[in-house]
């Protein structure tokens, strides 16, 4: 009897030491965590989710076997069927068996992949290895979790069955949110649980985010309104583009700037503003003809500046200056009528937009006119009827746009307009027009970006030509406010690129941060769609024949168009690329010229070019690049900085003018 008690009392603690209560987490290095530490691991959660019988057998079967053998040994000793020397041998065997139970129960190994660096918004793949080292077939439950709760997916499924000695690759996808900040590190943990033994192993790998895909709204303004207009001009019409024209208006009159903006859009040129002061004129001269300027050949001077008797060619240093001088003493309404007639007769305007002379009404009307290739007329009550009748004789496409309070001051009852757009406040009015522009852009399949200006007009004077060139709608707010209409537009269209045109008075740091939070709320819905298999390319929009190809079909059907071109990369220097010139692709599709060309990537990033830019730079091409086992298409733009180069191109969209 004493032997039974001795064996049970002696071997139970040994088993307990070898098989601690609860689940055990075994890391990639093979170390076994103590029970207390294991409670906080993923292994504990997974074991708790395993079938109860699995846990019970894992915990009690070894103890039961040892206890049964101990009782049998004691009984044989009592019946004198077993001598004590042999019993000592049995005790030794029991001791060895007990100590080996734990090692024998871990019948599989897990290998962790190396760490990776990534950009927020990326989806990474990690390949773990699982080897069944047990003598029999085993089925394993699989689970994966991110330290920060990022989305994970195990491609092989929730279970895998392996025979003795077999190894499987466990591929885990990790989706990094776009709102993650640069420098964030995450631990991805793979948990593997044996259904047979109940043992759990974990293997972990670190991901470091080295670049933030989603940046805060781009707060763009200069020291003065003259500088701000220069910033937008340089962003939309840089020196390396084909543009060689600019429109110049006074910085002291928003009416002039709005009329000049419409003219600039017809000319596919930027708008610059200046005063008559030497300091401002020197800034403009540097932008026009300076070493780092826009490379402008011709300047159109409009409005009050055009009324001045001044040697503009000498003061600006331009090769050519055209002064659109008012026929009489300068008056905004009269001058807008003259300029509208010029656009209708000389530049092919499709209609006329009428607007009151207040800044919000005139700005929104100028945006609408620019995107719809229409002239703009600023009207007061005493001239509206006469101007309406005069233009009715030239075109039926007449539109009236303005704040409700301003339109009520005009006598419009007996006048016929094809369309009237009005709203109670600047935010609502601009939202109405921005939605119409966004609908047209989305109709082409182009992602919607946006610019926001405020009713403080100084820093918004040069925005409309930039917006027209980039295909970005403009929204207007009061300084320091974020109205519901703006929030609605951003969230409904998943606006990714957002520029704020104004200084700290217009957009304080708190307001910029709030815009960022608004974007974060919907950015998780912006999932990049990377096609599987052969990489696709679609050329659509205003074309004679839409092209819907894969890279393989492009190489096979248009082999004579595939060329090798030496291009200087902005960071890597001279490189050779094989692909198709963008100009050849547009000719193959029968693009309607003149036009804009939007090049769109799989993740929604897009850049818009004028056809003149592509024609002037024939080596702009879609290069065929090997990426992750695919042949993808990347836009290469010689002479342009890297932000004009577009990776993973899936669409080329033609927007006829």
What does this protein look like?
Helix 6 (225-236) packs parallel to helix 8 and helix 7 runs parallel beside helix 16. The protein folds into four domains: 2-23 and 40-104, no CATH class; 109-211, Sandwich (Immunoglobulin-like), CATH 2.60.40; 218-523, no CATH class; 536-656, Alpha-Beta Complex (Sulfite Oxidase, Chain A, domain 2), CATH 3.90.420.10. By secondary structure, it is of the alpha/beta class. The N and C termini lie far apart (103 Å). The chain is elongated and about 100 Å long. The longest helix has 27 residues, at 52-78.
What attributes characterize this protein structure?
657 residues, alpha/beta, Immunoglobulin-like, 6-stranded mixed sheet, 21 helices, 28% strand, disordered N terminus
Count of distinct structural domains:
4
Averaged pLDDT, please?
Answer: 85
Bulk shape: elongated
Distance between the termini: 103 Å
| DSSP strand tally | 31
Percent in strands: 25-35%
Summarize the amount of helix as a percent range: 25-40%
Which class do the helix and strand fractions yield? Answer: alpha/beta
Report the total helices.
21
Low-confidence stretches: 1-66, 90-104
Largest sheet: 6 strands, mixed
Round the Cα radius of gyration to an integer and report it. Answer: 36 Å
